[in-house]
Design goal:
By secondary structure, the protein is mainly α. Helix content is about 75%, strand content about 0%. The chain contains 16 helices and no strands. The protein starts with 12 loop residues before the first helix and ends in a 21-residue tail after the last helix.
């Protein structure tokens, strides 16, 4: 059980932001491992003649491993706290990555990648609960947006480093994630501080209640997040090999382009986090992102089938950026709705849904691309964010930000009532209603 400080002010603002940055680093290393295998695909195909569908299956093994343990790590987070979970999980991920790099058999490599994915699920669950617990609602969108840059940052670093390391010997590309995960375990043990939370004995019955009972809100968020995961995984897995095979790019140039797109996506996550704070809603921006992602994928499918347009690469960058914008918003919505005693398990269910989609995507779309080429794959992928649009619970309002959802007329009425009762500090600067003006004698 965590310590029981009484408020979020038990640490200074600088310390809370420092913890956030540590969480970004730790989670980035786990995503470096989870998605790093995708950047081995060109070297596996070239060096061993591995079919694209089999290489895609190998790339999905960490995601399949995560599916098995995400809820388990969420339960441990609720019970033991984030620091222990992130430290142990990062250490185990580093060990599994090193083991995968040390074997020659693809079957053995896949087994260690699966085990590493089981361990990497720890920071994916605990990192979100950690950041959400240290910030108030009106700052939480930006904080979680920064934390959610971990995935694109991890992917960006992997795209830049792993293909170059793997060009001579494919398994060597996994030594880099092994090192980074080991360093993350040390950083977690030293620098992570669990956020304040009541003890279970002091909590009310409502705070301890199961948030899944009597409401479909969390299930709708999970469904939306799962559907929007598909374009993320498809672009991350196949963008590199698409640039090399269909457009003749070198390994370095293709890896650099993937890195740039992920860095843009990282900045975009911070921006949409701030957007959600300003509008007082996490899910309304998610609906806009889903529409933009689906539209960009359908346009990419059309343009990629007509190569004379020459805008395929900018469209692919747009898709890869749009596809990564939503995760922080959904994670925030879940932690706010589920509460501190269920947020770990709710994030575990959320991440399980996402990882199921992530594990399914590489082999499914690898086989589709081999059979029907890329344009049809992009078109099929666009159906997933399109299906998410009607499922988004846009009326969900974060606790503490309810006032931002009032209609404009209600806000005007509130302003006049405050003015009449002299409750507004700026009353002297605002116009006086006609009925309150003094008439000249």
């Amino acid at each position: 059980m965590r310590a029981d400080p009484t408020s979020q002010d038990s640490l200074s603002l600088l310390a809370r932001w420092s913890i956030t940055l540590i969480s970004v680093g730790v989670t980035s290393s786990s995503f470096l491992f989870i998605n790093g295998v995708a950047f081995l695909i060109p070297s596996l195909v070239a060096a061993r003649g591995t079919p694209l569908a089999e290489a895609g299956l190998l790339a999905s093994m960490p995601s399949w491993g995560m599916v098995v343990t995400l809820f388990f790590w969420g339960y441990l987070t609720d019970r033991l706290g984030e620091r222990i979970v992130m430290t142990v999980g990062s250490a185990l991920t580093g060990a599994a990555a090193y083991a995968a790099a040390s074997v020659h058999s693809l079957v053995a490599m896949g087994a260690f990648l699966f085990i590493g994915g089981m361990a990497a699920a720890s920071s994916n669950t605990a990192g979100g609960a950690l950041v959400s617990g240290w910030f108030p609602p009106d700052k939480r969108g930006v904080a979680m947006g920064i934390r959610q840059t971990a995935q694109p940052l991890g992917i960006a670093v992997g795209a830049l480093v792993i293909p170059e390391l793997a060009e001579r010997h494919p398994p060597a590309g996994l030594l880099f994630p092994a090192l980074m995960c080991t360093l993350s375990a040390v950083a977690s043990a030293i620098a992570i501080v669990d956020p304040p939370r009541k003890s279970r004995k002091a909590a009310t019955e409502k705070e301890l209640a199961n948030p899944y009972r009597g409401s479909f809100t969390l299930w709708r968020i999970h469904a939306v997040a799962g559907l929007l995961t598909m374009p993320q995984v498809v672009t991350v897995t196949f963008m590199l090999v698409w640039l090399m095979d269909d457009h003749g790019w070198s390994v370095a140039a293709a890896g650099g382009m993937v890195t740039i797109s992920q860095l843009i996506g990282a900045g975009g996550r911070i921006m949409v986090g701030r957007w959600s704070d300003r509008v007082g809603s996490r899910m309304r921006p998610v609906r806009t992102i889903a529409i933009a992602t689906a539209s960009a994928l359908f346009l990419l499918a059309f343009v990629d089938n007509h190569h004379g347009w020459r805008i395929e690469v900018p469209l692919m960058i747009a898709v890869s950026v749009f596809a990564v914008l939503d995760n922080g918003l959904e994670a925030n919505a879940i932690t706010e709705f589920a509460g501190p005693f269920w947020s770990g398990r709710a994030l575990g269910v959320q991440n399980t849904t996402q990882r199921l989609m992530a594990a399914t995507a590489p082999p499914l779309f690898g086989a589709l691309i081999a059979a029907a080429a890329y344009p049809r794959a992009w078109a099929l992928c666009g159906l997933f964010p399109l299906a998410a649009v009607p499922l988004v619970p846009v009326r969900l309002v974060p606790p503490g930000l309810e006032t931002k959802e009032r209609p404009r007329s209600d806000r005007r009425l509130h302003w006049w009532n405050a003015a009449r009762s002299r409750e507004s500090p700026d009353i002297s600067r605002r116009p006086v209603p006609p009925e309150q003006r003094r008439r000249p004698r």
